[in-house]
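Good day; I would like, with your permission, to put a structural problem before you. A protein sequence and the structure tokens that stand for its backbone fold form the material at issue. I would ask you to consider whether the tokens describe a fold that such a sequence might reasonably adopt. I set the record out below, with my sincere thanks for your time.
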Amino acid sequence: MTTLPAQTERKLGLVIDLDTCVGCHACVVSCKGWNTENYGAPLSDTDPYGKDPVGTFLNRVHAYEVTPQDNAPFTVHFPKSCLHCEDAPCVTVCPTGASYKRTEDGIVLVNEDACIGCGLCAWACPYGARELDALAGVMKKCTLCVDRIYNDTLPQEDRVPACVRTCPAGARHFGDFADPDSTVSQLSRERGGIELMPELGTRPVNRYLPPRPRDTLQGCADPAPATDPSTEGLTGFLGWIDRTLARF
């Protein structure tokens, strides 16, 4: 079994803003492209343009409809990939040492040459963040684009994970959580960054920023009128726009 480091010098990870993510899947496409063309064995695709396409992805976006008690329903787009946990169970169950957590930056990786495709790490991961590549016969997972963030031949602005660089809404942020002054640390602190399923004790590094409160109609108990074209009683950002345009 693989031993986790007692501590890491840095804690590289992602902050994902659920209020900003529009579910466009640009992060999924860029992740697929970069990790197919660069790191390790290509991510497989079987019958990609047929009626039963199957493939390996390191990042997926799920969509959920949320219905608040006193407001209209809205959709939350929830991107999910490896969370690079501090107490990563996928590492400690690996019988060959293929899964490991780096001491220098806390990134959890898979040594594909040592992976036997047993699937124990996928069973141990409570977040479903690992996929066995059927064609390569090895386990795949998010690497935080480790081959990209340390690549001195790339411009400085490109030395971030492909998903972060590609996100058109600016919903994804990359940095060092061990640095309290980093962008990810500040965002998490100011917006109440959420640790996914903290009761499991895995201590994931990645954080999610919760959606901000939606606009409401004052004095309206029934959320259905929120779809009414009338702007009377509208609060928040939309109310400000309505008041501003009314001046002209």
About this structure: Residues 36 and 42 are 4 Å apart (CA to CA). The radius of gyration is 21 Å.
